[in-house]
Amino acid sequence: MAVLRVGVAGLGTVGAGVVRLLAENFSVIAARAGREIVVTAVSARDVSRDRGVSLEGMNWHADPAGLATDPDVDVVVELIGGADGAAKSLVEAAILAGKPVVTANKALLAVHGSTLAEMAEAAGVTLGFEAAVAGGIPVIKVLREGLAGNRLSRVAGILNGTCNYILTVMREEGKDFSTVLADAQALGYAEADPSFDIDGVDAAHKLAILAALAFGRRVDFGAVHVEGIRRISALDISFAEELGYRIKLLGIAREISGGVEVRVHPAMVPKGALLAAVEGVFNAVLAEGDFAGTIFLQGRGAGAGPTASAVVADLIDICRGGALPVFGARMGALADTPAVPMPKHVGAFFLRLMVVDQPGVLADVTAILRDCNVSLESMLQHGRAPGEAVPIVLVTHETSEAAMNEAIARIGKLASVLEAPALIRIEPG
Amino acid sequence: MAVLRVGVAGLGTVGAGVVRLLAENFSVIAARAGREIVVTAVSARDVSRDRGVSLEGMNWHADPAGLATDPDVDVVVELIGGADGAAKSLVEAAILAGKPVVTANKALLAVHGSTLAEMAEAAGVTLGFEAAVAGGIPVIKVLREGLAGNRLSRVAGILNGTCNYILTVMREEGKDFSTVLADAQALGYAEADPSFDIDGVDAAHKLAILAALAFGRRVDFGAVHVEGIRRISALDISFAEELGYRIKLLGIAREISGGVEVRVHPAMVPKGALLAAVEGVFNAVLAEGDFAGTIFLQGRGAGAGPTASAVVADLIDICRGGALPVFGARMGALADTPAVPMPKHVGAFFLRLMVVDQPGVLADVTAILRDCNVSLESMLQHGRAPGEAVPIVLVTHETSEAAMNEAIARIGKLASVLEAPALIRIEPG
């Protein structure tokens, strides 16, 4: 069969990785795809930069949109990034030109995924995005194909390697957040502007995509509840250890009565749970199907090699053919299951207060919790320091988030409570 | 699009599970597959047995081969089992009739996989076997599609839940093999005739399939080195704990100089390794790709639900179309990488001897190891019992299996060595 001619937009680490992978593994890829896959055109800002790969014989486009109309390009690989701008224009132009698209762009998919999927469906072209979530782990394929016979009840994952690295180092070295972040930046594990990662936005983009696939809904980034890891303290990490938990930034999509919860936030996970053992820059995803049971996947969530592996898997799928609906079913057949707002969330909570060590404080706190219908599983206070600030840790039974919020508002107003209470949700993991 | 009409041969737990899954999740499956999937015909021995699912309106075939020619059947699902006989006849007849086949039959695939794949390729029909390996874990899909851009260097897995359950309970309860096996049989976790599982044959069938996919070779069950877990003692499990290892029955396919090693045997795995943490009836597979890095998958490896999930995933893939080569590439494009025989294996070893506690024994043993070029990493002997039998444990550095075999043969002949030495390979896990 004819060669599959690929145009690559964006020649950063990942783009160069894709060019290198297609060259290095050329013959095994051809044998598996049933046809040769060749990069015939590229687009990037700087034509002269050395990227460690040969671009010889490839058409060069200063404007990425040129790939959509290049007659030497059958498939467009979009690695520019960003929810709008050049990335979006290129993907739209390629689809309208009837060319399949492969992208690693989670922001684009999270924000415009439904519209782009409708365009792709109308044009009858593939929109592949394995590389957009969890890098080298084929989680899109596992959810959309491997578990396609199942109704899923829950998908939970560690979707951001930077956050997981920071939390791992904080625990191992007992350092606080800002110190570890600065170290991570120096080592290149965190960006100069780290907010996208540490505020949970990157994980939320990925979770929005997973939730759409898992529950057969349209992608709905706006419905994702997002909290990052800035407020996680060394103190809470050490209390977590003592109570038998690890703190992880989790993305969770879960079917509950009335709809679907979709949330990214730090969570306490029991140490024995699969997600608790995922350390450093690794990513992992756990999916619960009604027939398959729980499937757990772990691997490298970022980097040139793993991301290129996912891009090339999508290209090989395109060669092998078949009609794969973008979000697991035709857009018209997706369910309109509502997203349930966070106040309706029900779960257990870890609550840490800094209080003045004086008689009656605990009585005041527990009276408020009782009045808000929050029942306690355990309480922890170490040492005594009469008249000084001491931490008190409370672990609740399952309770509604609305009740918990009300209790915290009241507790925060007590004169003996010295800081805003720290609240971390507890998850099965 | 027209309904996909399925004929199911074999209505045991898994067959009934497939019928139930297709009925219970009928509409989500139709939305995902793009067409309705309906069981129109079945074959089993006993028409009257209650299987907890409705067979109303389905054609009944006393002879499974009838499904191949039934005009109401588009796809044949083979769940009879066994490498030959009715299962093989049915699969061949279906392929020759131009009908796609989905099977959970690892023995059939391991022994006749290459021939059947050639037949399927010639007939242009799909031969799906996701359910044949690791039940609900979509490992076939991950290797053949998700990691298709990678050269794999190693696949290692816990592929038999019965063995993993027995080894887990032996460790947790400190009981010996035969006691735990009897308990497992009473609980239904082990068959009345358990040899297929505990002698490693079932794991070897699965590994033969994974090795073919991972390394683009023809399936070669005969080349798999197979050892089971009968000889694992409570004593060695407790030494493993002390040395920081867990004993697991692993299936390992690894590229080494000169070819591919394909072996199933008990192995000591460091406690911190991913495979060491897989306990009870769970299965897990680890794959190392040159670009993706290490991918780890865990889930339920057997049972009606997980296996049915895998069968239905294959049926949905058939609806979605596309040409997927059975073993990852066209049969003519498979490599003829040779299998390397075990004596050429190089690795570290755990060696446990029962010796008479008397002066000079250790000197004799270490002299033999030196003469065979086996160097030691550590040695362990607890307590003293002059003139009595005591265990001595030796852990070697990397050495060739041939050298180790020679050393053991000589050590076994020493008058002070009272039992056949126990040898367990050490693996990274």
Give the secondary structure arrangement, pairings included.
The structure is a homodimer of 429-residue chains.
Chain A: E1 4-9, H1 13-24, H2 26-33, E2 37-43, E3 59-61, H3 66-69, E4 75-78, H4 85-96, E5 101-103, H5 106-123, E6 127-128, H6 139-146, E7 152-158, H7 161-173, H8 177-187, H9 195-198, H10 201-215, E8 225-226, H11 234-243, E9 245-256, E10 259-270, E11 282-289, E12 293-300, H12 304-320, E13 346-356, H13 361-371, E14 376-380, E15 389-396, E16 399-400, H14 401-412, E17 422-426
Parallel strand pairs in A: 1-2, 1-4, 2-3, 4-5, 5-6, 8-10, 10-17
Antiparallel strand pairs in A: 7-9, 7-11, 9-10, 11-12, 13-15, 13-16, 13-17, 14-15
Helix pairs in contact in A: 1-12, 4-5, 5-10, 7-8, 13-14
What keyword list fits this structure?
24% strand; eleven-stranded mixed beta sheet; Dihydrodipicolinate Reductase, domain 2; 429 residues; 3 domains; alpha/beta; homodimer; Alpha-Beta Plaits; Rossmann fold
Explain what this protein looks like in three dimensions.
2 copies of one chain form a homodimer. By secondary structure, chain A is an alpha/beta fold. The first copy, chain A, folds into 3 domains: 4-132, NAD(P)-binding Rossmann-like Domain (Rossmann fold), CATH 3.40.50; 139-300, Dihydrodipicolinate Reductase, domain 2 (2-Layer Sandwich), CATH 3.30.360; 344-426, Alpha-Beta Plaits, CATH 3.30.70.260. Helices cover 36% and strands 24% of the residues of chain A. Chain A is built from 14 helices and 17 strands. Chain A has helices spanning 13-24, 26-33, 66-69, 85-96, 106-123, 139-146, 161-173, 177-187, 195-198, 201-215, 234-243, 304-320, 361-371, 401-412, and strands spanning 4-9, 37-43, 59-61, 75-78, 101-103, 127-128, 152-158, 225-226, 245-256, 259-270, 282-289, 293-300, 346-356, 376-380, 389-396, 399-400, 422-426. In chain A, strands 7, 8, 9, 10, 11, 12, 13, 14, 15, 16 and 17 form an 11-stranded mixed sheet that branches. Chain A has a 6-stranded parallel sheet with strand order 3-2-1-4-5-6, with helices on both faces. In chain A, strand 4 (75-78), helix 4 and strand 5 form a beta-alpha-beta unit. In chain A, helix 4 packs parallel to helix 5 and helix 5 runs parallel beside helix 10 (201-215). Chain A is elongated, with a radius of gyration of 24 Å. The model of chain A has no long low-confidence stretch (mean pLDDT 96). Chains A and B meet through helix 1, helix 2, helix 6, strand 12 and helix 12 of A and helix 1, helix 2, helix 6, strand 12 and helix 12 of B. Strand 12 of chain A pairs antiparallel with strand 12 (293-300) of chain B, so a sheet runs across the interface.
